[in-house]
Amino acid sequence: MIEYIKGTVAQLTPATATIETPGGVAYLLNITLPTFSALEGQTSSRLFVHETIRDDAWTLYGFSTERERELFRSLIGVSGVGSATAVIILSSLQGDELAAVISSGDVKRLKAIKGIGAKTAERIIVDLRDKIKATDDTLIMQTRSRSDAFDEALAALQALGFDRKTSEKTLEKLFTADPSLKVEGAIRKALSMM
């Protein structure tokens, strides 16, 4: 089992990171928006890993903090929540925000996330209410120009499986309302609108 991967950030998108190790092996890891923000501008990194091994695929998920990985593992432990859905949840609600939503029983907020219905939202709250607690964990977001932010947000939404046309319309509304919007914020808001 892989605990973490440390190396050079060879390639970075809002949905994936490629980390090249000193031995010359490069690993493609699926990441969340908070991890993307933590990696932006970095030349090297250490990502905590969760492996999903199936007959047809070996998929790696990378997280900038152990806490985020534990939240991911807690989420995929809930019946009806797969790895892709857990990544979308953690991209929509950061650690303490997610903990607050779960502890307050805010079903409506969870239902606003793509792929989460009422029953799944209720199940997440019931299963995790006593397991997930808030901390003072904060993540750094860097300011990007509007065109870069728009393009990266669009690429991330498409990587998450959203239609390009719908994603563009949603992002246009968001950037018209707030031209200084950052990539992570744009994607998070778009996820709640789509």
Written overview of the protein:
By secondary structure, the protein is α+β, with helices and mostly antiparallel strands. Helix content is 48%, strand content 18%. The chain is built from 9 helices and 5 strands. A 5-stranded antiparallel beta sheet has the order 3-2-1-4-5, sandwiched between helices. A hairpin with a 3-residue loop joins strand 1 and strand 2 (16-20). Helix 7 (146-159) packs antiparallel against helix 8. The model is unreliable at 136-146 (pLDDT under 50).
What is the topological layout?
Layout: E1 4-12, E2 16-20, E3 26-30, H1 33-39, E4 44-53, E5 58-63, H2 66-76, H3 83-92, H4 95-104, H5 107-111, H6 118-128, H7 146-159, H8 164-177, H9 183-193
Antiparallel strand pairs: 1-2, 1-4, 2-3, 4-5
Helix % is: 40-55%
Give the spatial strand order of the biggest sheet: 3-2-1-4-5
Please tally the helical runs, counting DSSP H or I stretches of 4 or more residues: 9
Largest sheet: 5 strands, antiparallel
Distance between the termini: 36 Å
Shape: globular
Give the uncertain stretches in residue-range form.
136-146
Average of pLDDT: 86
Number of E strands:
5
**Estimated share of beta-strand residues:** 15-25%
Tell me the structural class: alpha+beta
Summed up, what is this model?
The protein is α+β, with helices and mostly antiparallel strands and 194 residues long. It contains nine helices and five strands; from the N terminus they run βββαββαααααααα. Helix 8 (164-177) crosses helix 9.
